[in-house]
Amino acid sequence: MESEQLFHRGYYRNSYNSITSASSDEELLDGAGVIMDFQTSEDDNLLDGDTAVGTHYTMTNGGSINSSTHLLDLLDEPIPGVGTYDDFHTIDWVREKCKDRERHRRINSKKKESAWEMTKSLYDAWSGWLVVTLTGLASGALAGLIDIAADWMTDLKEGICLSALWYNHEQCCWGSNETTFEERDKCPQWKTWAELIIGQAEGPGSYIMNYIMYIFWALSFAFLAVSLVKVFAPYACGSGIPEIKTILSGFIIRGYLGKWTLMIKTVTLVLAVASGLSLGKEGPLVHVACCCGNIFSYLFPKYSTNEAKKREVLSAASAAGVSVAFGAPIGGVLFSLEEVSYYFPLKTLWRSFFAALVAAFVLRSINPFGNSRLVLFYVEYHTPWYLFELFPFILLGVFGGLWGAFFIRANIAWCRRRKSTKFGKYPVLEVIIVAAITAVIAFPNPYTRLNTSELIKELFTDCGPLESSSLCDYRNDMNASKIVDDIPDRPAGIGVYSAIWQLCLALIFKIIMTVFTFGIKVPSGLFIPSMAYYHHDWFIFKEWCEVGADCITPGLYAMVGAAACLGGVTRMTVSLVVIVFELTGGLEYIVPLMAAVMTSKWVGDAFGREGIYEAHIRLNGYPFLDAKEEFTHTTLAADVMRPRRNDPPLAVLTQDNMTVDDIENMINETSYNGFPVIMSKESQRLVGFALRRDLTIAIESARKKQEGIVGSSRVCFAQHTPSLPAESPRPLKLRSILDMSPFTVTDHTPMEIVVDIFRKLGLRQCLVTHNGRLLGIITKKDILRHMAQTANQDPASIMFN
């Protein structure tokens, strides 16, 4: 009965281990246990026929139905190490899904045997919810810690609280009775460095001393951050999102989500934000959350032994990261679905939602900003928007798309130059230079002196009677009978005009410095604040606004501009709109946000479809097939497969004609990560596929544990050992590590279909046959090289080293 069920599921009785030991260097998504074979027929008798190749697509899982070997017999004595992956290789999604299905079947068959087995079954069923709960708790706690520490260290550049050293500037003045409404940030307990060192609070000497101390602390924080990254955790640099996208697609980067990376990333993210560099903490918080998810997954065997299941946890963790970065749990789930996840089943959607909920709850409990909100720059707008405002919103979208296209090209050009010149060999010096330039230019301008979150808060917040910002410096006519908060109908004061000039300079400064900052060897996120300015005397608004009415909300324009710029850089759409309206609590502004974000995406796509994360993936040469890219060229599988003309023949193994020495020599003389197995050199009939790593481990294990295995022992991949002379050494059976259902296509299959299959199934390689005879192999790297050639790029320059 069991074998019949397995057959209907698409697995033949002896093919389990073949599926659980598939190939190695490229990439694989969920095949759901079904392998598509583009052959004329699966009947062996038809393989010799002249049926038109590539015209009849069949679904098969290979293998032999007549096998007498039971599926579970192959699992009685598994070879240690077989089925694991080397660093910088890609997982086999089909094998991992089969392993998980077999584990689940085994647990279900035993759970009625005893109370202990039932308890183990319940623990296994709930382990997914437990791991995402722990991930959410840790992500929220670390985000709160990072926010509090970054605020304190940012204020440390300007001064210190004498009454309590651990208070930042705002907290220091909370309990002071000497604070006035106009100068709410000044109190006796808070001392600037000029007051402490030279005893002057005002004057040129005070300004110069504060300037020097600001630069000193900025350089100290930047130097400490880059030194910690370089010495202890090189993977802690950058945003982390390009690598996480690659890891979620199945690539193995050992240590990238480890405990050292988590510790150093948490500490250096605080230092990098406090140093005043033009970067944010949003992307690195996703990396931090994924590190938590990876570490906690090792506590549960269901996830620690299965790379595909582990990536479901990482998808949920990335949702928790965005949830605490922006205070947007639903936006986090959509971000994970839209931007980073390669495989996102419905169960992962629910767990991502729960992880984002837990993380947001923990951060709200910590309340790091003292405003009972998840982020510093939470704002609420109650003024409705008007139809004529759609035009300036769309203009903001155009600006965002142009800015995004410019930023991606400029940043990638600089990063490529960094890689190809000597400058890239001195990351510490680069960080120090960028930090020094940023600090020297930023200090004189109050808007560039603020960190990113405070700047966004300043721009998003609407003017009211309690606001002391110079952006709200409107003249107040004491003789008028108007209400005090009727700001839009008052003329602008000197503070507003000076603030606009400072904001213009801040915008230019941020544009230039962000290009050079994103990608340096410190944790660096990307959140581009934009600015928008309205004055009620502008002709475009004057005809529409009634006298005395709150017609335009300047903070709303800043919010839409920020969303448009971030959309132009990342090419996010749905998740970005949800994140921004969760930030502002304004459901009525969804239409302006959608208009601006879609416009920015369209304008950006006109210059190139890649977002900043995809561009960095391509720059680093990771084997990532982006589903957003279109392949429109009319080539065939035979044009891309290896070996090409004038190449040496394909390295293959025969079913039962090779010795242990022959296989070891082939492994030593080649660098391939797997070898097709054929019946014989004459027939070239395909039998299966064996991984280099599995062959090496299996032979070493056999030499240690089995007597009589020597270099001249015959290696047999067939079910039945061929008859050998009596004096021959004991044969070595390696059928258990053979993938007897490798993915195959015919030589006339269009490459458009092959690329689509690689994307949707996450394949790492497929074999090319003609009437059942092996012709060659196509790996994921071959496809990436071919796509680079068709785009007139150098294929050798895009591969990961």
The major beta sheet can be summarized as: 3 strands, mixed
Strand content range: 5-15%
User: In which range does the helix fraction lie?
Assistant: 40-55%
State the strand order across the main sheet: 5-7-8
Q: How far apart are the termini?
A: 49 Å
Number of helices: 29
Give the overall average pLDDT: 79
Work out the radius of gyration. 31 Å
What class do helices, strands and sheet pairing give? mainly alpha
Low-confidence stretches: 1-76, 478-488, 528-544
Number of strands: 13
Shape: elongated
Please sum up the structure shown.
This protein has 801 residues and is mainly alpha-helical. The protein has a three-stranded mixed sheet. A three-stranded mixed sheet has the order 6-9-10.
Walk me through the structure:
Belongs to the chloride channel (TC 2.A.49) family. ClC-3/CLCN3 subfamily. It is a multi-pass membrane protein. A motif (Di-leucine internalization motif) lies at residues 28-29, 46-47, 71-75. The structure is a single chain. The chain is mainly alpha-helical and 801 residues long. Among the domains are: 387-476 and 490-620, no CATH class; 637-791. It has 29 helices and 13 strands. The strands form 5 sheets. A 3-stranded mixed β-sheet has the order 5-7-8. It has a 3-stranded mixed β-sheet with strand order 6-9-10. A hairpin with a 2-residue loop joins β12 and β13. α4 (115-156) runs parallel beside α9 (259-274). The radius of gyration is 31 Å and the shape is elongated.
